[in-house]
Amino acid sequence: ELPKQLFSVAICPSDNSAAIFRATKTISSMCRDDAPALSDLEVGVPSPPEPRDDESTGEDVHLSEREDSFATEDDDDSEFDGGHGHDDEGNNSCGRGIIKEFKRTIGTHWKKEMTNLNFRTVGVSFFIFIAAVAPAITFGAVYAKSTNNFIGAIEMILATAWCGIVYGLVGGQPMMINGGTGPILAFSTVLFDMANNMDIPFLTLNAWTGLWICVFMVLAAFFDMNRLVHHLTRFTDEIFAGLISAIFIIDALGNPFNQVGVFWFFSPDHQAHSKHENDPSYSYIASAFLSCILTFGTTAGAFKLRSMKHSRFLPNQTLRNIVCDFAVVLNLIFWTVISKAGFSNVPTETLNVPDTFAPTFECCDASCTTSFPNDCPGQDEAWGRRPWLVDLGDTGGKPWVPIFAAVPAILAFILIFLDNGITWHLIQEPSNKLVHGRAFNYDTIIIGIMIAINSLIGLPWLVASTVPSIIHVQAMSDKDDKGKIVKVQETRLTHIFIHLLVLATVFALDLLRLIPVPVLYGVFLFMGIVSLASNEFWHRFNMLFMQRSRLPDEPFTKYIAHGRTHMYTLIQVFIFVCLVVFRSIPQIAVAFPIIIKLCIPIRSYLLPLCFSKDELILLDGESPEIKKLVKQFEKEGHNEEMVLRESKRNLGVDDAAFDYADERTRA
Questions:
Q1: Can you tell me the distance from the alpha carbon of 311 to that of 325, in angstroms, rounded to the nearest whole number?
Q2: Which of 11, 101, 358, 617 measures 20 to 30 Å from 90, CA to CA?
Q3: Do residues 265 and 628 lie in contact, with contact meaning Cβ atoms separated by under 8 Å?
Q4: Are 311 and 320 in contact (CB under 8 A)?
Q5: Would the pLDDT of 7 be above 80?
Q6: 126 by DSSP, 3-state: which?
Q7: 496 near 115, Cβ under 8 Å?
Q8: Residue 645, number of CB atoms within 10 A of its CB
């Protein structure tokens, strides 16, 4: 009998994977059911994505290559909910949510996340390492000034290293990067001032406060307080992400509130110039110009090499992928060599790295209660350094300190809870296509334990760091031609490698001194721009200045009157400005997350008074909601002009005042 082969062609709409599946399934069914002679033939049938079941079973929901070829935008985001939908199946309090999350993440994907090593993993590890170690040193220097050296750069590097390694091994969301944040630094400064005013040893008060924070975080996880995070929407996420991106960009270019940023090098009073004031050949203008070249060269070069993935250069795609993955690292090395070899006679600022690995605080005497040299100016050398372990019993003769510490711990808990929750919510956006599940309650316990340990050895508290986490997700993702994420390589290896490198810097501090600060500014500028480019708030802000007929083709530009969209954007701009003001004033910076928290009632209670339900879905809904609404409009026969007329009618605006011809031109 001659071999038989069946070839069929299904002509279906290109944007309807469901129709393609039904057609091919029907053909294969006919072959198998109606033609017994052909029943043994192998018929290739694409299968639609299985319904996501990670909320209950933790099954891997990665699409196969065959499924990817038939998946479209209509179904993508509904399959990748990123954990936004809270697990409402049963009661998650009394520790049930912790157990479910552990099974859904660690218990299901740990082995796969520990074995998916490739070139991208290595390249991204070096990139994020630079983005982690430089802020660690900078934050450490600020901590040292704010706490009289009780906490410094060495403590910050050590905390970043060990917390990152441990979290990479046992954390529930390995795409999240821990680090220091401004609000936590501001709180530590307030706590130090409080300890001085009350004549209490700072490290003792800090340790008891950290232990109380751990207790509160364990209770929050046990009773599933993280369900409150699910009240956050893109309205809040976009504002917060935009703020963090703006901080990176402004601090790279020039912060008006402190001497941070490349443009500050043009000031003759900048601290980087003071060490060369006795050198007659030194020119601060030349140093400033070279710093600008290094900063913008690093940023532009990173973008250029990053685009190599889709270029025609290099012999094959493998090399192009490697160059893309190592884009930031290659540029950092290149511009560092340019600075040291090509312009060795033009000094630039370098990182202020500690000389040795030891506690920053130096003691005047054996009691170690006074700081050298500030408290003993006539003394030639320090008696020694503080011990690593904090004495919990050293309360300055005030036995009520352990109980009193619960008061500041409540405020610190709110800060940490919101910092973590917002960052987790951002990286678990459905558009990020993370499929290994979320672990908010489980991770709350992990971070609480880390804070307790850090408090006992005098290290700073670390929380989820927003921009490095977003950049981590972006760097490990594959994107389509429109820049939308198709899938993400979710791995623990980058997290572990990054923080092993941070730990290695403790034993190679001299190497860090070779990296010019302007080159690091270029890395920060690159990170800020990359994270800003994926923020819809930023795109709608740009639309405020665009010609109406040339607005991008988005659902909210089709079905919402443009004035309404601009009104929504301006509300976000107002809250954004408030956040910038609160963060920039040290005296009130500690209340910064409270303003973020106010976004929840603003979105839940005030915006529904100003916008219709459909408008809020189009502006603030998740992709599945938006697509469902657009399909409903199309099914009901509402074209764009009809929906816009209805929107204007609800506003009481005369139709004649609205340029429908311009809308048709744009469409």
A1: 14
A2: 617
A3: no
A4: yes
A5: no
A6: helix
A7: no
A8: 17
483: left (phi over 0), alpha (psi -120 to 50) or beta: left
Q: What angle do CA 449, 453, 459 make, to 5 degrees?
A: 125
Evaluate the CA torsion angle 469, 444, 421, 484 in order and state its sign. Answer: positive
Q: What is the pLDDT of residues 545-554, one digit of tens each?
A: 988 878 888 8
When comparing pLDDT for 526 and 186, which is higher? 526
At 154, which helix (H) or strand (E)? helix 153-170
CA distance 549 to 565: 15
pLDDT of residue 46: 43
> Lowest mean pLDDT: which of 334-348, 351-365, 503-517?
351-365
Q: In whole angstroms, give the CA distance from residue 480 to residue 309.
A: 12
CA angle (72 as vertex; 69, 73 as ends), nearest 5:
150
β-sheet bridge partners, residue 477: 488
Structure tokens at 500: 């092993």
Mean of pLDDT values over 391-419: 89
pLDDT tens, residue by residue, 344-394: 888 888 876 667 778 888 888 877 777 777 778 777 788 888 888 999 988
As given in the structure block, the two tokens for residue 173 are 């969301």
Query: Which one, of 460, 473, 543, 566, lies nearest residue 162 by Cα?
Result: 460
Task: Give kind and range of the element (H or E) at residue 385.
Answer: strand 384-385
Do residues 376 and 370 touch, judged by C-beta distance below 8 A?
yes
Partnered with residue 488 across adjacent β-strands are 477
pTM of this structure: 0.71
Residue where the block lists tokens 């029943």: 39
What tokens does 75 get? 């179904």
The span from the CA of 614 to the CA of 559, in Å, is: 9
* Residue 275 DSSP label: T
The set of residues, in sequence order, having a beta carbon less than 8 Å from that of 305 and lying 6+ positions away, is 323, 324, 326, 327, 330, 331
Two tokens, residue 480:
């389509």
| Model confidence at 292: pLDDT above 90 | yes
Q: Smallest Cα–Cα separation from 486: which of 534, 532, 435, 433?
A: 433
80 vs 397, higher pLDDT: 397
